[in-house]
Write a structure and sequence with these properties.
The protein has seven helices and two strands. The chain has 153 residues and is mainly alpha-helical. A two-stranded parallel sheet has the order 1-2. Helix 2 packs parallel to helix 4 and helix 5 crosses helix 7. The longest helix is centred in the C-terminal third of the chain and has 24 residues. The radius of gyration is 17 Å and the shape is globular.
């Protein structure tokens, strides 16, 4: 366990140094109870995000979206929304190389932190969450607050 905690701390330090920002989206099953509902809710959430951050996004020569292709519904929504909003080619591709693999690990880390935040918020933290993060307060102070500095609003 001590070695795993050391790895977690080291990876957290690595992520905090990266010139990267993130945004995650959470959909409760009652809001999107099936695939059809998700196909409606997800693109709308993405459109809202893009509208709110359009000026920032347009400041880049190219926008690349790293997605592993795990769910076709998600990939279609990403392609549709970003291509329409930015009116240029947006790369959506499956990570495959060494650099992309690192980005996928960072994305997984952000998702893990956000999921853990939800679990502490809903008082459904697991034994493993408590082993790694000790308490909600420690989790927020040592991980969430630091990672959230990279959050795109």
């Amino acid at each position: 366990m001590a070695l795993r905690l050391k790895y977690l701390f080291a990876f957290n330090a690595f992520v905090l140094r990266l010139p990267i920002h993130y945004r995650s989206f959470v959909f409760e099953r009652k809001a999107a109870p099936g695939l059809e509902a998700l196909q409606t809710v997800l693109p709308e959430a993405l459109r809202s995000f893009v509208r709110s951050n359009l000026e920032w996004l347009l400041g880049f020569d190219q926008v690349k979206i790293y997605y592993d292709g795990g769910q076709p519904t998600v990939e279609m929504a990403l392609r549709e929304v970003f291509t329409q909003a930015l009116a240029r080619q947006v790369s959506v591709f499956k990570p495959g190389g060494f650099r992309e693999y690192r980005l996928a690990q960072v994305a997984d880390y952000f998702c893990t932190i956000e999921l853990t935040r939800l679990k502490f918020q809903t008082k459904s933290a697991t034994h493993t969450d408590l082993l790694f993060f000790q308490s909600k307060r420690d989790f927020q102070r040592k991980y969430l607050n630091r990672v959230r500095k990279k959050w795109i609003g």
